[in-house]
TrEMBL record:
This is Galactokinase. The keyword ATP-binding applies. Coiled coil: none annotated. It comes from the Bacteria. The keyword Kinase applies. GO terms for biological process: galactose metabolic process. Keywords: ATP-binding, Carbohydrate metabolism, Cytoplasm, Galactose metabolism, Kinase, Magnesium, Metal-binding, Nucleotide-binding, Transferase. Its EC number is 2.7.1.6. One of its GO terms (molecular function) is ATP binding. Residues 283-348 form the GHMP kinase C-terminal domain. Residues 9-55 form the Galactokinase N-terminal domain. PROSITE patterns: GALACTOKINASE, GHMP_KINASES_ATP. Residues 91-178 form the GHMP kinase N-terminal domain.
């Protein structure tokens, strides 16, 4: 993403003025899927694609915002009744309102922003946008809000102004990202720890199936329900259990006859996935990327066969990775579409991408989109 482009558009729309420039990244999640609402761990990292905004205080009580990518301009006030109609502007408005609710003093400002996070590919473009403005406005208006609260401001914006009941992972990764590191986030306690991720000789690449990333909400809710049903059954013998994160396979086995085969299968995936995250952390501390890859394949198998949230296109891309000797591959995100994330040795990269494109197109009539990503820093001021 080019700072010069953002600067030139800002000057064009706001009388040649110059403001401050801030950026926040999108994210990947290496492993740990459907573990968040089960009290488990996720393992995200910030990427080298994100959102960038130029901002200047304008001395009024109005925000004047220009979306460079959409070529759309909106003005709005800072009171609750001033909420803009344009969905993209609601993210900025929501961040302003959430800061104000926390005692921050926000005044009117001019802003132009652009992004290079692919939309709908599961890399959290909306979290990148929220984090950019939360970080920037906190800095510019000296609100004194800590980074954790900035992530929560982004999450609350989704809940209260955009109608998305998301977890904290996306905003957390965007604000806390660190080049060369992934972050293990404990979704129960919100404790976190950085782990080294410097896969020399490997590339991280996402293959977008271009299947609509609709988290079929009814299917998602059904899976949450399965997990809660099993926890309730285990709790009868183990009152200390609150989430599947607290359960072992032995505990699950003991209630096998008290729950449906489907509920058992869903829970088996989650318990194994929480362990896989911990195994990957151990492997990264030893620089053992072969084990990391093996666990990624394990996650894909579990999501496809036990949690049943994959789809034909994603399974095809995973098989293609296996066939081409890719170290690790899995569906990334909630499932039902979106991308696979792949850890590929550099010498195998070209052949893998060529085969994936060609064979996928032969079967599905279109090519997958290819996104190379590098683990990068979180929210920051650029100029």
């Amino acid at each position: 993403m080019d700072i010069e482009v953002v600067r030139s558009r800002f000057q064009k729309h706001f009388n040649g003025e110059i403001g401050s420039v801030y950026a926040s990244p999108g994210r990947i999640n290496l492993i740990g899927e459907h573990t968040d609402y089960n009290g488990g761990f996720v393992f995200p990292g910030a990427i080298d694609k994100g959102m960038m905004a130029e901002i200047k205080i304008n001395g009024t009580d109005k925000v004047r915002a220009y979306s460079i990518d959409l070529k759309d301009y909106v003005e709005f006030g800072l009171n609750e009744e001033d909420a803009p109609h344009a969905s993209w502007a609601r993210y900025i408005f929501g961040v302003c309102r959430e800061i104000i609710k926390r005692g921050g003093k926000i005044q009117g400002f001019d802003t132009a922003f652009a992004g290079d996070v692919p939309l709908g590919a599961g890399m959290s473009s909306s979290a990148a946008l929220e984090s950019t403005y939360a970080f920037a406005l906190n800095d510019m208006f000296n609100c004194g809000i800590d980074k954790f609260e900035l992530a929560k401001i982004g999450q609350a914006t989704e809940h209260n102004y955009c109608g998305v009941n998301c977890g904290i992972m996306d905003q957390f990764a965007s604000v806390f990202g660190k080049a060369g590191s992934l972050i293990r986030l404990d979704c129960r306690s919100l404790e976190y720890k950085y782990y080294p991720f410097n896969p020399t000789g490997y590339k991280v690449v996402l293959l977008d199936s271009v299947v609509k990333h609709e988290l079929a909400s009814s299917a998602y809710n059904k899976r949450r329900q399965s997990c809660e049903t099993v926890v309730a059954a285990i709790k009868k013998n183990h009152p200390e259990v609150e989430f599947l994160r607290d359960c072992t396979m032995e505990m699950l086995e003991a209630v096998k006859n008290d729950v449906t085969a489907e509920d058992y299968m869903r829970s088996e995936y989650v318990i194994e996935e929480i362990q896989r995250v911990l195994d990957v952390c151990d492997a990264l501390e030893k620089g053992d990327y072969e084990t990391v890859g093996e666990k990624m394949y394990g996650t894909h198998h579990g999501m496809s066969k036990l949690y049943e949230v994959s789809c034909e296109e994603l399974d095809f891309l995973n098989d293609c990775a296996k066939k081409n000797g890719v170290t690790g591959s899995r569906v990334m995100g909630g499932g039902f579409g979106g991308c696979t994330i792949n850890l590929v040795k550099e010498e195998l990269y070209d052949a893998f991408i060529a085969d994936a494109k060609e064979s996928f197109k032969a079967k599905f009539g279109r090519s997958p989109k290819v996104y190379d990503v590098v683990i990068s820093d979180g929210s920051r001021k650029l100029a």
